[in-house]
Backbone:
């Protein structure tokens, strides 16, 4: 029975991987995966999937209950910054002041700033794409680098490495481990600096290599969406400091004054509506923008919740204890093992948030029992979940290529370098620093 159950778990995750890669509904894939796990694990399939006390619905209900409104508010904040032209104002002002040669770095940092401030990662693709269409040709940046550059901006250091980030990858550990958003700040800053220096350095090298590449021109690609009208935005978009203010206030309220996420993000959205009112076309346009923005956050939350539900069904099988024991017994040092388990689960599920939730709920207490503080577990896990999650079947990765028109063959190696390899390598300075400090304190 144990062998059959293990086969079921492997098949279930194969279904998730196949669905993500082939762009099949991830919710449907999650339901099928949960059914396979239940069937092969000797559980009542119907009760496991649709029963009020079934693990699949309990997993979904717990995740949605905790995060749905937060997801929606983050998406709304992104819509307000996009529709008002605030994102364009921040980026264009910085580039005009610094010069075109700094376009790539500023693009990455502005995207990271908005993600760090709570705008949802998937939403940021739609926010940045129209702007990149203007910037990249001006700065001589090959268009095939768009997925890799944007991946670095929105799906790496601003997501789970930087202490204080308002993304789910940094928020989820606070709920499970009881830590703060600024947990292990020095380790987080070290990982962030590593990612920025090495990641941006690699991209500048690729830009230089691609100057004479015949496939560099944006005109060769079927890019989705329109192009920003800079003359119109110059007249309509809010000023630079006004554009920054709602984001700064949101961050300070949550990280500086300990305001609840719900209230902090709500304050950011309300301030955006007030300060960007004229840029959004007045009060009459509020209803449509608010509805669109809020709704944009619901679907990603449901998808991730469904993946978490699959993990709950796995944990309900008799074989889970055996699987758990084998994973825990990987021949790796403690913190490295924390990172390995988290990133493997994130890679299987194709979701940083889903993989992080499953890893910490299933193994969090075990990690702490090894003698590590919840704070270092928080930071290591939140960094590691952003590694193997961006394999080719990840939803955000699929969206980057679909919207930009770039082929996987031409662009994925840069995505892999920026969002898979470098985040995992950024754990090296974290491990070194923690081992030095820990050794000193033990002496």
Residues:
């Amino acid at each position: 029975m144990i062998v059959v159950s293990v086969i079921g778990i492997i098949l279930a995750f194969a279904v998730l991987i196949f669905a993500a890669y082939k762009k099949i509904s991830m919710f449907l894939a999650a339901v099928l995966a949960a059914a396979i796990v239940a069937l092969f694990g000797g559980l009542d399939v119907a009760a496991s999937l649709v029963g009020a006390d079934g693990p699949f619905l309990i997993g979904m209900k717990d995740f949605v209950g905790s995060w749905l409104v937060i997801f929606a508010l983050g998406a709304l904040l992104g819509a307000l910054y996009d529709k008002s032209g605030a994102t364009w104002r921040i980026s264009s002002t910085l580039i005009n002041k610094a010069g075109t040669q700094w376009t790539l770095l500023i693009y990455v940092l502005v995207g990271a700033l908005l993600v760090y401030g709570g705008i949802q990662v998937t939403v940021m693709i739609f926010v940045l794409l129209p702007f990149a269409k203007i910037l990249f040709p001006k700065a001589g940046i090959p268009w095939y680098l768009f997925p890799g550059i944007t991946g670095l901006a929105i799906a790496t250091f601003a997501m789970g490495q930087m202490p204080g980030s308002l993304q789910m990858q940094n928020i989820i550990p606070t709920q499970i481990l009881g830590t703060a958003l600024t947990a292990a700040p020095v380790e987080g800053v070290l990982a962030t600096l590593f990612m920025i220096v090495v990641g941006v350095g690699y991209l500048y090298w690729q830009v230089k290599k691609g100057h004479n590449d015949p496939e560099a021109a944006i005109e060769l690609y079927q890019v989705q969406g329109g192009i920003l009208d800079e003359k119109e935005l110059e007249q309509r978009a809010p000023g630079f400091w006004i554009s920054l203010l709602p984001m700064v206030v949101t961050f300070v309220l949550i990280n500086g004054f300990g305001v609840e996420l719900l209230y902090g993000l709500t304050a950011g959205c309300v301030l955006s509506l007030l300060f960007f009112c004229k840029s959004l076309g007045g009060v009459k346009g509020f209803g449509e923008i608010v509805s669109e923005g809020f709704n944009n956050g619901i679907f990603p939350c449901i998808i991730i919740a469904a993946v978490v539900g699959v993990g709950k069904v796995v944990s309900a099988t008799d074989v889970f204890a055996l699987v758990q024991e084998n994973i825990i017994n990987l021949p790796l040092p403690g913190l490295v093992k924390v990172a390995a388990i988290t990133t493997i689960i994130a890679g299987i599920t194709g979701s940083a948030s889903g993989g992080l939730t499953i890893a910490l709920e299933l193994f969090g207490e075990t990690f702490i029992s090894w003698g590590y503080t919840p704070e270092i577990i928080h930071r290591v896990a939140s960094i590691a979940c952003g590694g193997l999650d961006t394999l080719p079947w990840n939803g955000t990765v699929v969206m980057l290529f679909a919207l930009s028109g770039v082929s996987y063959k031409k662009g994925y190696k840069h995505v892999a370098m920026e969002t898979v390899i470098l985040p995992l390598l950024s754990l090296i300075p974290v491990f070194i620093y923690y081992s030095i400090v820990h050794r000193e304190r033990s002496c």
Observations:
- The chain has a mean pLDDT of 84.
